[in-house]
Amino acid sequence: MARGRLNSGNTQGEELPKAKLNRQTLTHISRLLSYIRPYRGKFAAALVFLFLSSLVGLAFPSFLGALIDAAQGKHTNKLLPASIQGIGLLALIVLFSQAFVSFFRILWFVQVAERSLADIRRDTYFKLITLPMNFFSNRRVGELNSRISADLSQIQDTLTTTIAEMIRQLVLLFGGVAFLAIVSIKLTLALLVVLPVLVVVAVFFGRFIRKLSRKAQDKLAESNTIVEETLQGIANVKAFVNESFEAGRYSKNIREVANIAINGAKYRGMFASFIVFGMFGAIVTVIAYGCILVSHNELTVGELFKFALYAVFVGSAMGSFPELYANVQKAVGASERVLEILAEKSEDVSINEINNKIEQKIKGDIAFDDVHFYYPSRPEIEVLKGVSFEANTGQKIAIVGPSGSGKSTMAALILQFYHPQSGAILFDSRRSSDYSLTDIRNQVAIVPQDVMLFGGTIRENIAYGKLTATKEEIIIAAQRANADQFITSFPEGYETIVGERGVKLSGGQRQRVAIARALLKNPSILILDEATSSLDSESERLVQEALEELMKNRTSIIIAHRLSTIREADKIIVLEKGTVIESGNHEELLGNEKGLYRYLSQLQFEV
Ligand SMILES: Nc1ncnc2c1ncn2[C@@H]1O[C@H](COP(=O)(O)OP(=O)(O)OP(=O)(O)O)[C@@H](O)[C@H]1O
Ligand SMILES: [Mg+2]
């Protein structure tokens, strides 16, 4: 049974790259093993039981050999009783204790592994969500996801089965050889000459085959990416009538997978022939030699039988090491990748309590002082080139400008997702670094350009702005955001599930949910990143009303695409290619004959 699990774990983890074992990787693994420390008592007990059960397992060939000899009236093993009944009874007792010990060692190993894995998973997930935004721009979500699933499963497999199996096989190997030597030194020597050669050849052959199957699996993973991407963007595929293009891309990939796998099968077949001929040939040879010894009365039949069983033990132990070793290597590789995440530096957010206690209040003044910024993932492109502006508490500041000019980037900087390379962002005339990250983010709310809702209920999605909100608070926020009406029109009202497996909300509805969320949060500074997609005039009115409600009594930064929405703004900042080229209120900017604002608003109002 243990081998069955081992194999299944192996195929699943096959695609994981292995790591070389050296001192450094061993320190890595030992750091991961520190997660076992809280459960070390049970782990030690499991190890002892494992050792015991393997040792007891070694006794069985002796029992069987003694039984056969007893049947022929011989008493070769002086440690065991002479009669068949005596040996049988003793074997039963040993068998029973073996069963008892095995049960607990499996239970305990799994308990220790599962609990420590849960701890590692928790820490890794927690680490992931507290890492700075920049970390995520360099990696794919799928890759990070596989660290938590595939990599940790590999480690889990190693903890639950590989380590145990390795210890068991070691006991069987050394114990087996010792018992073999007791039976017959001559036979043992004969065996030890033949066996290692066969095992080494088998191992190299096996490794070669595994490499081929890894290649097939990589290719398969590649084709899975095609499936994933096209299914996620199925609307795009259909809209561009690219079904046959994707189908062609996929089938080309799949054909390659098949070719590699078939090529691998040739070697697999050769391997099987080798095993049949080589391994069984060796066993037959050794046993034939044993039979000669029996005929010369140097050995009893029982002893030969016993010998054959021990030889099987030793052979299979030798054969199992490479696979076990490969599993350990994979686990080391996996743990390196997991540790890499654990070693990353988290953002400095206080996370021990959910409550949003604010240490340093921000009134609502905000200023950019000569902010230069590029995304760390793309240092050659400076997105903001010396942006400065000021907003006083309660003001409405609008940022307009062409697509890609850096408006959403400014929002990201205010939220401290990234930090400017030079210049400063000031809250109430103090540098952002004087505040804790949690304080800033707790007092700034954003209604983003593309609102993302979680897969729960509408109520949960609104409450994301304030986890402790009561039902009444949520309803009031929804009413103020003009969202209550459409929410109550659903049969399940606030308990309507949104997202993948529930109702899909329209753009305007999603925005109003986001506005309700922001209202609930009640921030001193509000950022509105207006959606570029235009709403029909009725939903636009509803959203606009909701926004007016939301902007009351706080500093608002409105990133606007429809200039009609910002006529009332206290100040309009016109951004182009990362530089502020104009600023002033609506009238002032219209007065500038050659200004971009005047040009843009003429374009919009002409339509
Ligand atoms: N995470 C990122 N990593 C690297 N570059 C980015 C990232 N996000 C945006 N950019 C780049 O920064 C520039 C400014 O992007 P930004 O999203 O701020 O534009 P925007 O003014 O909000 O445009 P829009 O009006 O279309 O929303 C763009 O050239 C964009 O390609
Ligand atoms: Mg934007």
| C-alpha termini separation | 74 Å
CATH superfamily of the largest domain: P-loop containing nucleotide triphosphate hydrolases
* Heterogens: adenosine-5'-triphosphate, magnesium ion
User: What low-confidence regions span 5 or more consecutive residues with pLDDT below 50?
Assistant: 1-15
Output the CATH class name of the largest domain: Alpha Beta
Q: Please state the overall shape, judged from the principal axes of the Cα atoms.
A: elongated
CATH topology heading of the largest domain: Rossmann fold
Percent of residues in beta strands: 5-15%
> What is the succession of H and E elements?
HHHHHHHHHHHEEEHEEHEHHHHEHEEEHH
Biggest sheet details = 6 strands, mixed
Strand order of the largest sheet: 6-7-8-3-9-10
Number of strands: 10
Q: How big is the Rg? A: 35 Å
Number of helices: 20
Q: Based on the structure given, which CATH architecture of the largest domain is correct?
A: 3-Layer(aba) Sandwich
Whole-number count of domains: 3
Mean pLDDT: 84
Q: Return the structural class.
A: alpha/beta
Write up what this structure looks like.
This protein has 607 residues and is α/β, with parallel strands linked by helices. The chain folds into three domains: 20-180 and 321-347, ABC transporter type 1, transmembrane domain (ABC transporter transmembrane region fold); 185-298; 366-606, Rossmann fold (3-Layer(aba) Sandwich), CATH 3.40.50. It is 63% helix and 10% strand. The chain has 20 helices and ten strands. It has helices at 2-13, 23-33, 40-57, 59-71, 84-130, 133-137, 141-183, 185-232, 234-239, 243-295, 301-343, 407-414, 437-443, 458-463, 471-480, 484-489, 507-521, 537-551, 586-591, 596-606, and strands spanning 366-374, 382-391, 396-400, 422-427, 430-431, 444-447, 525-529, 555-559, 571-576, 579-584. Strands 6-7-8-3-9-10 form a six-stranded mixed β-sheet. It has a four-stranded antiparallel β-sheet with strand order 2-1-4-5, with helices on one face. Strand 4 and strand 5 (430-431) form a beta hairpin. Helix 2 (23-33) crosses helix 11 and helix 7 (141-183) packs antiparallel against helix 11. Residues 1-15 have low confidence and may be disordered. Magnesium ion binds next to helix 12.
